[in-house]
Amino acid sequence: MAQSNGGSGRKKPNLLITGTPGTGKTTTASALAEATQLRHINVGDLVKEKNLHDGWDEQLQCHIINEDLVCDELEDMMEEGGNIVDYHGCDFFPERWFNKVVVLQTENSVLYDRLTRRGYTGSKLSNNIECEIFQVLLEEAKESYREEIVVALRSDTIDDINNNVSTLSDWVRNWNTLS
């Protein structure tokens, strides 16, 4: 059967798992990597490990990511395929990198509880809740990638996460035969 790999020549697909902080990106990406044997790339961790940032944002309490350095660091791995990229932004990654873009979404009261447990307060908390309310990441994904590869998945409960991992694992298994 002919391979349908988006013309990339990759033997394994690349997925982007994105969404507002607290929607379960890392949990989902880790479980999916374990289920599919794909490589999990947590961009936040990569930025810290390789110093791919331009300093620290005191107000938001996070590193100021250098998008060019991140893309340079990932280029060879992404061309090879077989990656699950986990990050709360998506518009700076090249469109050619991804075969599936997953936007995780969480109900606001659930998200609020998750973020406050992480210690988010003030503008960091309210900015992230507003981001989810206005579906900023879903819109960003739809503007940055072909609409047919973008999917929004609910991520409120452990059952949701397990179902998402199962659905995405099936997609990865069938990737070479999809037309």
TrEMBL record:
Q: Listed GO cellular component terms?
A: cytoplasm; nucleus
The segments labelled Disordered in the record are 1-27
Where ATP is bound, by residue?
22, 24-27, 118
Q: Cite the record's Low complexity compositional bias ranges.
A: 18-27
Chief localization class? cytoplasm
Note down the stretches annotated as region NMPbind: 42-65
**Catalytic reactions on record:** AMP + ATP = 2 ADP; ATP + H2O = ADP + phosphate + H(+)
**UniProt keyword list:** ATP-binding, Cytoplasm, Kinase, Nucleotide-binding, Nucleus, Ribosome biogenesis, rRNA processing, Transferase
Q: What is its EC number?
A: 2.7.4.3
Q: Which InterPro entries match?
A: Adenyl_kinase_AK6, P-loop_NTPase
According to the record, the residues making up region (LID) are 117-127
Q: Cross-referenced Pfam families, in alphabetical order? A: AAA_18
Q: Name a biological process GO annotation.
A: rRNA processing
Q: Name one GO molecular function term.
A: ATP hydrolysis activity
Which family does the similarity line name?
A: Belongs to the adenylate kinase family. AK6 subfamily.
Question: By its UniProt entry, which PANTHER family does this protein fall under?
Answer: ADENYLATE KINASE ISOENZYME 6, POS9-ACTIVATING FACTOR FAP7-RELATED
- What job does this protein perform? Broad-specificity nucleoside monophosphate (NMP) kinase that catalyzes the reversible transfer of the terminal phosphate group between nucleoside triphosphates and monophosphates. Has also ATPase activity. Involved in the late cytoplasmic maturation steps of the 40S ribosomal particles, specifically 18S rRNA maturation. While NMP activity is not required for ribosome maturation, ATPase activity is. Associates transiently with small ribosomal subunit protein uS11. ATP hydrolysis breaks the interaction with uS11.
Q: How does it assemble?
A: Interacts with small ribosomal subunit protein uS11. Not a structural component of 43S pre-ribosomes, but transiently interacts with them by binding to uS11.
Q: What is this protein called?
A: Adenylate kinase isoenzyme 6 homolog
Which lineage? Eukaryota, Viridiplantae, Streptophyta, Embryophyta, Tracheophyta
